[in-house]
Design the sequence.
């Protein structure tokens, strides 16, 4: 299949998309956020949503917006000043998105994450479940790094990486990175006049990463190097990435028409296969749930999640987010998944209807003990 055909197939079949917008695009070369850019992005995103896609936005720009608000012209270098600017600017940034999405009758949510939130298994699962729930409510999450609290050790450092991890977190089909350059070029256009665009990358090789490392990208936090690294994270999670010039008119619409624009990076392996492999084979199993026949049938035949009512017994000590085996009454193991409740709480609610969870535990995070998305049939 030709690269263009592959591209058209990808954009035609995507359902869940992460769109990352860099500060360079949002400021449009000036030193403040250009509201007109946000308006255009919102209009194009809303069209995608109206067509039935789920969209998550990862947006930079809080520091830029904060600097404007504080009347700071010079570049900020020390971390506390950047954090202060981000804290001032984030509410303005989200305000712009809300203003324009509201006109399109779309709901938005502000989501601020740190690296810690995604590397800790339990918080990773909570973040995933919360984002999935937002999508199920038809809300468009507008995500940024929680710059105010992100000290060095828990920082993503750049929103390119954050966008790839979010794409992985929610099992997106496609990551679109809006940059202020055309995509990955064969060299640094500032130094090499003959540098041309690489439209298609089947594999992200070390050579390709080296090429990206060479291109400078003033005004952007990460440059092309972090964008290609993000594409690699996405590829390894089974997700395609398109890096395009976000300053081009109607760029999002053009991408989803399958126009040969920017650089498309293909995934290195099938997404579902990878996630299932991770749950089934990589994670340490911390406990066992014995399910009744009704629950077994619902999972095996009807593709349902596991609810507390279908669990007859629990063994082992585990936390929420851990992997457990599910066996039938004859102790045959038939599926494996990530639990939403720890073993102590779970023992109190097994056999009970979901409507009783809150009464028994005093709180309820989820109806499901194991959500379908986190369940693998063996
Ligand atoms: N979180 C930063 C901001 O909102 C930007 C980080 C980045 O663009 O990579 O200003």
Sequence:
């Amino acid at each position: 299949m030709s690269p263009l055909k592959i591209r058209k197939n990808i954009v035609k079949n995507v359902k869940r998309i992460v769109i990352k917008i860099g500060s360079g695009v949002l400021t449009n070369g000036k030193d403040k956020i250009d509201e007109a850019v946000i308006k255009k992005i919102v209009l194009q995103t809303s069209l995608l949503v109206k067509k039935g896609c789920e969209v998550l936005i990862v947006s930079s720009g809080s520091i830029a917006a904060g600097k404007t608000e504080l009347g700071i012209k010079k570049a900020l270098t020390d971390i506390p000043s950047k954090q202060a600017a981000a804290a001032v600017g984030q509410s303005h940034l989200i305000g712009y998105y809300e203003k324009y999405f509201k006109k399109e009758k779309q709901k938005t949510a502000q989501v601020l994450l740190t690296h810690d939130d995604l590397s800790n298994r339990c918080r990773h699962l909570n973040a995933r479940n919360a984002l999935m729930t937002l999508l199920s409510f038809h809300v468009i999450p507008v995500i940024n790094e929680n710059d105010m609290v992100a000290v060095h050790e828990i920082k993503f450092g750049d929103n390119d990486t954050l966008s790839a991890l979010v794409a992985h977190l929610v099992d997106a089909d496609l990551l679109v990175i809006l940059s202020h350059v055309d995509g990955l070029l064969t060299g640094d256009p500032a130094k090499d006049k003959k540098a041309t665009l690489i439209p298609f990358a089947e594999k992200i090789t070390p050579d390709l990463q080296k090429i990206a490392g060479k291109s400078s990208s003033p005004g952007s936090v990460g440059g092309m190097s972090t964008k290609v690294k993000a594409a690699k994270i996405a590829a390894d999670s089974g997700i395609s990435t398109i890096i395009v010039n976000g300053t081009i008119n109607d760029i999002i619409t053009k991408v989803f028409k399958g126009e040969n624009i920017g650089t498309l990076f293909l995934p290195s392996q099938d997404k579902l296969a990878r996630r299932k492999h991770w749950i089934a084979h990589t994670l340490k199993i911390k406990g066992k749930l014995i399910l009744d026949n009704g629950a077994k049938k619902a999972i095996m035949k009807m593709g349902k999640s596991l609810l507390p009512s279908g669990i007859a017994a629990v063994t082992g000590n585990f936390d929420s987010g851990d992997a457990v085996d599910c066996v039938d009454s004859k102790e045959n193991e038939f599926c494996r998944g990530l639990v939403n409740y720890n073993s102590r709480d779970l023992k109190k609610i097994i056999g009970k209807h979901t409507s009783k969870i809150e009464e028994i535990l005093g709180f309820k995070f989820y109806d499901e003990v194991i959500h379908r998305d986190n369940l693998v049939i063996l």
